[in-house]
Design brief:
By secondary structure, this protein is of the alpha/beta class. The protein contains 17 helices and 13 strands. Strands 1, 2, 3, 4, 5, 6, 7, 8, 9, 12 and 13 form an eleven-stranded mixed beta sheet that branches. The N terminus and C terminus are likely disordered. This is Phosphatidylinositol N-acetylglucosaminyltransferase subunit Q isoform X2.
């Protein structure tokens, strides 16, 4: 809130030089009055607000109209202080008269003796002028000083409903910026905690009449209230169903080896467990303690609604015009075509691929071994062909659980349909890895070294002639067989990486739907003031002898900051390896698993 850095533009009245020199010996005190713009047309009365002595600022919250009884006003403010924990008091008087009346002015000055507050603020709106007059009365001045008053208008509704976000680089920012952020936070917090004060409108039967942003009527929605009442039994039913499903998932039946292995490796089970946690968060009867928890619940709720809506649209598209049957009829020919292409690839590898001369005996053994697996796979596909349409029909129904569940099932189906490629990759990788580690061990033998398993280091060692002869023989055999093995490993690794890339793109889409804070983005789009990054001030009027009038406007949070701040955590099924680690695994023949290892929870 860099109030003092704002200067009037050219053409405004300037203070004479003699006056500046005469007042240079008197200390200047800047007093800031935050006035709600909704009260600018209110009738004359008392200014009710909160005084912030650290900032020498007054936050006006409401105006109490005439007539009133001072005892009742004090009693009402005492009740408000107990509920809001905000020191709300009468800070001064407000005058809005068409004609200047001396009797009213004297009466307003006399109110300062009844409501003792230091300092006492007197605001007056001049009808025949666009400027306002503001005076500060110090009952017990300690030292003679001159007050410079800055009148700041703010939108009370927007400030109360908005949530101020601290700057992202607050740790690296200067102390001045951190102090400004804390001052703004006190202002926003004061208005937000005074919500009880704004629940009293002019239609209430009571001796006290207030003017604030809801004085014309409390803002409410019949639809929202009906949804609140209907959500109670729905949440109770949902909590019961979720507790039942959770007890089934935690039963001992799922802890046996085959079921627990499948549950931990299938991405569909991971996604269902993730959505189950989201439903438990939404149906919880525990009230959100702060704004981040409330936004997290809202983002999860909107994400679930959007996910289910997209899933229902996908399901309606699949079951229209018998697309399930067409998909089942297309699946078998595609599988046969892929198998035929693999057979042609293996026949090419068993010959002279790219003019390379391979070890014929090993080449024939590996080629026939993989061809036999392809034959088994084709037989399995044709055996399952009568049931594929029925399986796809039931799988399509799972789209009603959400688009992410349908995409996870698609990823698992791709993994099942390409299981023979995965087997080829595992066979080739294991054989290649065995030869790489064998060659490295024999290379250490040539240099008189060995690997110390206990100390995990390479030590010197002396070998006899027989050991060196056998080592040389084995090294020669492995070295000449390595190109044939490496070629098969290279081909099937590329095929495996192609499948992993397709599944990775599907899981990236699932993670995007799971983590995207849709409610926060819609809130930023429709009501940007709800997500405040800071404020800016615009000079309205400035004149010598009159208070400087500023308009405070809310700077909304950027879309990138919204996504970064409110992004939901995800449970990705793929490990996040670096490029260096991935290349090292590929070179050494280590397996690249299509699932995350145990205990790798990723946010």
């Amino acid at each position: 809130m860099q109030m003092l850095s704002l200067k009037a533009s050219g053409g405004q009245d300037q203070t004479p030089k003699a006056q500046v020199e005469s007042s240079s010996s008197i200390p200047m005190v800047v007093l800031k009055v935050f006035f709600p713009s909704c009260c600018s047309s209110a009738e004359s009365g008392l200014l009710v607000g909160h005084w912030i002595p650290e900032q020498n600022s007054a936050v006006i919250l409401a105006v109490v109209h005439f007539p009133f009884i001072p005892v009742q006003v004090k009693q009402y403010l005492s009740e408000v202080r107990q509920v809001t924990q905000v020191n709300v008091s009468v800070l001064g008087t407000w005058s809005n008269c068409k004609k200047k009346e001396e009797s009213l002015s004297e009466f307003l000055e006399d109110l300062g003796t009844i409501f003792s507050h230091e300092p006492w603020i007197q605001l007056c709106k001049e009808t025949d002028s666009k400027f306002w007059s503001c005076s500060i009365i110090q009952k017990h001045p300690s030292t003679p000083k001159e007050d410079e008053i800055i009148l700041v208008y703010y939108d009370q509704r927007k400030v109360m409903l908005s949530h101020l976000h601290p700057p992202g680089n607050l740790t690296n920012s200067t102390d001045h910026k951190a102090e400004d952020a804390s001052k703004l936070a006190i202002l926003f917090d004061t208005v937000a905690k005074s919500k009880v004060l704004f629940m009293k409108d002019r239609y209430d039967d009571g001796p006290i009449k207030l003017t604030h942003w809801q004085s014309e009527g409390v803002e409410a929605s019949i639809i929202v209230e009906l949804m609140k009442q209907a959500s109670i039994p729905v949440c109770m039913l949902l909590t019961f169903l979720l507790s039942f499903v959770s007890s089934v998932c935690k039963s001992r039946v799922l802890k046996f080896w085959p079921l627990c292995f499948i549950w931990s490796k299938l991405s569909t089970c991971e996604q269902l467990g993730h959505r189950l946690e989201h439903l438990q968060v939404i149906s919880s009867n525990r009230k959100a303690q702060n704004q981040p928890q409330l936004m997290r619940k809202a983002n999860i709720f909107v994400s679930l609604l959007a996910d289910v809506a997209l899933g229902i649209l996908l399901m309606s598209w699949l079951y229209r015009k018998n697309r399930i049957g067409h998909l089942a009829d297309t699946l078998i020919p595609v599988a046969d075509h892929v198998a035929k292409e693999l057979q042609d690839l293996l026949q090419w590898l068993m010959g002279v691929p790219a003019g390379l001369k391979m070890n014929r005996a090993l080449d024939q053994v590996l080629g026939r071994f993989f061809l036999y697996h392809i034959h088994l796979w084709i037989s399995y596909i044709h055996l399952m062909s009568p049931f594929i349409e029925m399986i796809l029909w039931y799988v399509g129904l799972s789209a009603c659980l959400g688009l992410t569940v349908a995409l996870s099932i698609l990823s698992d189906i791709i993994a099942l349909l390409t299981f023979h490629i995965y087997c080829f990759y595992v066979y080739g990788a294991r054989l290649y890895c065995l030869k790489i580690y064998g060659l490295s061990s024999l290379w250490r033998l040539f240099r008189g070294k060995k690997w110390n398993v206990l100390r995990q280091r390479v030590d010197s060692c002396s070998y006899d002639l027989d050991q060196l002869f056998i080592g040389t023989l084995l090294f020669t055999i492995l070295l000449f067989l390595l190109p044939t093995t490496a070629l098969y490993y290279l081909v099937f690794t590329l095929l495996r990486l192609l499948v992993v890339v397709v599944q990775g793109l599907i899981h990236l889409l699932v993670d995007l739907i799971d983590s995207l804070p849709l409610y926060s983005i819609l809130l930023r789009l429709c009501r940007s003031y709800r997500l405040a990054a800071g404020v800016k001030f615009r000079v309205l009027e400035q004149k010598t002898g009159k208070p400087l009038r500023l308009l405070m406007q809310i700077n909304p949070l950027s879309y990138g900051s919204v996504v970064q701040t409110y992004r939901l955590p995800t449970y990705s099924c793929y490990p996040k390896d670096s490029w260096g680690s991935l290349c090292k695994k590929l070179f050494l023949g280590e397996l690249i698993y299509p699932w995350k290892h145990k205990g790798e929870k990723q946010d």
